[in-house]
Amino acid sequence: MFKAIYMIIAVGVLLAYGTAAWFGWEFANAGSNSRLGMPFIYNGFRGGK
Amino acid sequence: MTTLKAQCPSCAAPIEFKAGSSIVIICPYCRSAVARTDRGLEDLGKVAEIMDSESPLRIGLKGTWNNTRFELTGRAQLKHELGGYWDEWYATFSNGWVGWLAEAQGRFYLTFFQPLPKGTTLPSLGDLQLGQTIDQIPSQTPLMVQEKGTATYVAAAGEIPYKLTPNETVSYADLAGKNNSFATIDYSMDPPWVFLGSQVTLAEIGLGDAKPVQREARTVTSDVMRCPNCGGPLALSAPDKTERVTCPNCNSLLDVNQGNLSYFKTLNPPPSQPDFVAPIGAEGTFPDGNKYKIIGAMVRSVTIEGIAYYWHEYLLYNPSVGFRWLVHSDNHWNFVETVNPADVSNPQFYGAGAKVVYGGKTFKIFQDAQAVVEYVKGEFYWRVEQGETVRAVDYVSPPQMLSLEMTQNEMNWSLGTYMTNDQIEKIFGVKDLPRPWGIAPNQPFTGSFYYTWGFLPVLALLALAIIMIPLSGLTRTVLNQQIQMPPLQNETTPQAVFSQPFEIRGNSNIRISASAPVSNSWADLDVDLVNEQSQEVESVNVPIEYYSGVEDGESWSEGGQDQDATLSSLPAGKYSLKVEGTWQNWQQPMPVSVKVEQNVNRGVNFCCAFVVLLIVPILGLFRKWSFESTRWKDSSFGSSSSSGSDDSDDSDDSYSSDDD
Predict the structure, then answer these.
(1) CB pairs under 8 A between A and B
(2) CB spacing of B506 vs A2 below 8 angstroms
(3) pTM recorded for the entire structure
(4) Residue B448 in contact with residue B642, Cβ under 8 Å?
(5) Shortest alpha-carbon distance between residue B642 and chain A (Å)
């Protein structure tokens, strides 16, 4: 059972990755109106102020 | 010698030597062994009647071996010095050969007299070592000493191709080689005679249709036999094989001698009342396709570092295939059958790291201890008794375990195959067997899917990433402009400057980079991407700060003069940048360099997917490590043997019951 669930999730992750790569979606982005709405990883430097 | 009709010198009944090779005939009337000699017939004495047997063979059966026909013309029964009987059938071939067909515990060995080259001297019986290879015997494969002992001729029938003396005791050594090679050295002759051949199946010798005698289990009634101690009746499932039986009424251990019971001893109470899960008499069909009946059960133990560990063993019996064992330890189960010792690579030593190879698989040593019989119940084909001790060395390669049991005169290898509770419940038609605890020495790990096939999605992700790079194209710069930000009116009121317009393509991510010549100061930029058609705005914050200095003679720096931010794709169209910011030296202008790129190979998506897909395989590997650690924790050789332990095979679905 877990094998099937894991494989379904894995295929889902692969589909999500492929779709994001095709449409130019960034899972972690800095945009204020992010299409995915989760700029939880920001690659810019913060702090200092 | 030729066919001879004569009268029995003992009872004058007519007897006939049909086979030219026959030396002795057993008178069917008075059971005298009558030998024909140059001087006439000689009465060698009376032999006992052949013990009732479930053997599929009988005198008169005809078979074929190597395209040569033969007929079974005689039979002798021998009694092992430690109890137990076996049969020797004599096969008279149409070309004059005489073959010895030994039948023991459901196995058959066909051998022929093998003259040794002139000048060959065999080691004496006393010099033979178990496991020693006897190179003097001309055989295609090396022959290894498996057993040495003595046996007594107790019964015979038909025609015998040698001078069989009733109740004569002979010394012998059995040897085994690869590919079922087999040999016996008969030390009753001087010099010893060698009989060379192989283990055969009845089908291989043209006797595949021979069926065992079917009969009901014999119940010894009070009129015939009863327990010599309490008088209670006994039922024997293998009366022709049984050497010891326990009385279920008085807990006595009884000797069985050709159907006669005699009191041997009263069993000592076991350390704890044995709770045999499987009852004696239970029947079931095992993975080898044969139906076995439990005829005996015993409690055995090993003591390691002062702690006694107990387990149960059930003796299984099928008249056609002989005996097998079902071992029940910590509620784990193993189906055990003996294997040809010659098929096991001879262990060079028995210490940590020792390995043997059988059937192409490498088995690692797990335990080396003295195994003691603590308690017995039911029937046994040898003279079992409490306290019987053998050296037991276990080697594991899940789901199998090779066990070597050694006494002074005998070594036996057996192969155990792990069975799940579900399988045992199905075999015996029972439910709710107690669940196993701990990890059995040869218990297969059932979760290898997650760190073998489980890595497949990770590989697929790598392949997908490689494919997507050329599909999405290379990074493309759509704006690269130097913007001069005028001095601020005050510290907190930002200044805004627009860039020149530029084209953005759809379905491509966007990276906005900004660079400012800050030094030990900061600039905080808010950059808006403004769609000139729809006026929609996407904003990012790009803070820039850079600090450096020298402390204790060492230079340091923090931050940088360049920063960037990445966006998901936006609708295609014409855009401009609105750069708005504040900076530490607000009274001075701030030159800012901005760059907008698309199709950036950023890697965050890949890393996120990679981490997510790795979770399960990594957990699977950890689970495997934990499983093996627990397994080898119980081994005397755990620390050295567990390293690099084999990946347990769970490809067999029969072990996949707990894979989830």
Answers:
(1) 134
(2) no
(3) 0.72
(4) no
(5) 27
